């Protein structure tokens, strides 16, 4: 009877009782649903890869990367987009197939490029001519051929928070379409002995809901392709259209299927290529958030509850800004439930505060809840993307553990940090001993 009652009232995620998870692994705790990740990957396979010929999908690992995640992505047959030596190192340690890695970044170091070339990654997306020069030196030294794309900034402004917008003209990412910068680098790459220029890449931004920005970018890119064909007899073979597909966080977010974006991309590409008499290149997409965002929840234990009469009630949790900087950075909004009171009527509005010495450390400004007591468990929803991967140790808070859940079972995939981990790399110089 007691167990039946618990099952009814506690918040379940991937068949697991989240209150039990909090007890077993402690809080704060990142919880990730394996089935949800696989479901998203399979939608990409069914509605994009199998529907349209000559297509590939890579998971943008910056959204959430662990060794276990690499294994799931590999099993689902997707590639991996990495953006740093650290992300590549993780993929290498997970034995991820290197030919399925796409290496990005707007300021890759010599060491990172060297590492990528030595490991034989499938593509390097070159962001600027400085990088192109380094890549030429490295491939000449190692005598290894590397397939590259150039990242361009298509001059298209999607609708999202300005900090996660990337495809506009005024952006640090990519080579501008204006001027002859592109012509110069294409000439250089096509004359290079070890570089094989496959085509171009753009990424418009993140948490986008409208296909129109992608359509505009395809128009800009196909015009570039035509220009390069006419002026340099260079034929683009591959177009990487980035990620950015939006997900549900709160009321008002209207997420779309992957096909909503990819059908539009493919259709526009075919129309433009036909009219410009250019062969249709292969197409790569690289979603991050769309795959992992809704697959994660974060569990916290509620501590202090402070009511300021006629102002608001602050409910503080044992994590906050260090495990989820998104509300502070982008004013990101989240939904949440009191996991141990999931079925109780929500008759009040509270503010969920983190435990950092930072006024801006507020996870949710207005959350409808039942009566709250210290010791209750808060589950913040849709925290799979850019939470664990953006976590810090601010205020020397140890990073939470990550648990993978599936059909009622749970596995620890990242251990909780200990206090010892926080000072592991500190050194006291002799004169201070
Ligand atoms: C080059 C590139 N590709 C893919 C992504 C993935 O973006 P999202 O997680 O919004 O799909 C990003 C991040 O915005 C990116 O910078
Ligand atoms: N970190 C951002 C997404 C940026 C993706 C990288 N270009 C977010 O949390 O929404």
Give keywords.
eight-stranded parallel barrel; 433 residues; PLP-binding_barrel; binds pyridoxal-5'-phosphate; Lyase, Ornithine Decarboxylase, Chain A, domain 1; globular; pyridoxal phosphate binding; TIM Barrel; alpha/beta
Structural description of this entry:
- Homodimer.
- The active site is at residue 357.
- Belongs to the Orn/Lys/Arg decarboxylase class-II family. LysA subfamily.
- There is one protein chain.
- The chain has 433 residues and is α/β, with parallel strands linked by helices.
- It is 32% helix and 24% strand.
- The protein has 13 helices and 20 strands.
- The chain has helices spanning 2-9, 18-25, 34-49, 67-75, 85-93, 110-119, 129-142, 181-190, 212-232, 258-276, 289-292, 326-330, 419-423; strands at residues 12-13, 16-17, 29-33, 55-60, 79-82, 101-103, 123-126, 146-153, 175-176, 195-201, 238-240, 282-285, 296-308, 312-317, 336-338, 348-353, 362-369, 377-381, 401-406, 409-414.
- Strands 3, 13, 14, 15, 16, 17, 18, 19 and 20 form a nine-stranded mixed β-sheet that branches. It has an eight-stranded parallel barrel with strand order 4-5-6-7-8-10-11-12, surrounded by six helices. The chain has a two-stranded antiparallel sheet with strand order 1-2.
- A hairpin with a 2-residue loop joins strand 1 and strand 2.
- The mean pLDDT is 96.
- The chain binds pyridoxal-5'-phosphate (PLP) and lysine.
- The site of lysine has 8 residues, from helix 12.
């Amino acid at each position: 009877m007691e167990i039946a009652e618990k099952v009814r009232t506690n918040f379940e995620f991937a068949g697991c009782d989240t209150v039990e998870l909090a007890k077993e692994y402690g809080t704060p705790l990142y919880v990730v649903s394996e089935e949800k990740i696989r479901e998203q990957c399979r939608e990409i396979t069914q509605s994009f890869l199998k529907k349209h010929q000559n297509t590939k999908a890579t998971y943008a690992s910056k959204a959430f990367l662990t060794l276990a995640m690499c294994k799931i992505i590999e099993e689902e047959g997707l590639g991996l987009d990495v953006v740093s030596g650290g992300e590549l190192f993780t993929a290498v340690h997970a034995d991820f197939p290197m030919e399925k890695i796409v290496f990005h970044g707007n300021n890759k170091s010599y060491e990172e490029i060297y590492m990528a070339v030595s490991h034989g990654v499938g593509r390097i997306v070159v962001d600027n001519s400085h990088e192109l020069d380094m890549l030429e030196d490295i491939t000449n030294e190692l005598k290894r051929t590397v397939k590259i794309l150039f990242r361009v900034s298509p001059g298209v402004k999607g609708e999202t928070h300005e900090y996660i917008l990337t495809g506009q003209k005024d952006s640090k990412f990519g080579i501008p379409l204006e001027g002859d910068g592109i012509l110069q680098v294409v000439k250089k790459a096509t004359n290079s002995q070890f570089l094989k220029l496959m085509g171009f890449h753009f990424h418009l931004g993140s948490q986008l809901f409208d296909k129109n920005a992608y359509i505009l970018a395809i128009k800009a890119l196909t015009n570039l392709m035509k220009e390069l064909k006419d002026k340099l007899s260079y034929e683009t073979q591959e177009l990487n259209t980035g990620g950015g597909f939006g997900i549900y966080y709160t009321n008002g977010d209207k997420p779309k299927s992957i096909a909503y974006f990819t059908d539009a991309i493919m259709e526009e590409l075919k129309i433009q290529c036909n009219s410009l008499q250019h062969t249709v290149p292969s197409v790569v997409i690289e979603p991050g958030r769309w795959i992992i965002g809704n697959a994660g929840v974060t569990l916290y234990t509620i501590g202090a509850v402070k009511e300021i009469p006629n102002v608001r009630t602050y409910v503080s949790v044992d994590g906050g800004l260090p495990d989820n900087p998104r509300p502070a950075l982008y004013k990101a909004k989240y939904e949440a439930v009191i996991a141990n009171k999931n079925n109780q009527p929500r008759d009040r509005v509270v503010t969920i505060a983190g435990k950092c010495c930072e006024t801006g450390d507020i996870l949710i400004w207005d959350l409808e809840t039942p009566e709250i007591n210290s010791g209750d468990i808060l589950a913040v929803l849709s925290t799979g993307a850019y939470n664990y991967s953006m976590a810090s140790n601010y205020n020397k808070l140890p990073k939470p553990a990550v648990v993978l859940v599936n059909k009622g079972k749970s596995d620890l995939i990242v251990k909780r940090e200990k206090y010892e981990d926080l000072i592991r790399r500190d050194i006291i110089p002799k004169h201070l001993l």
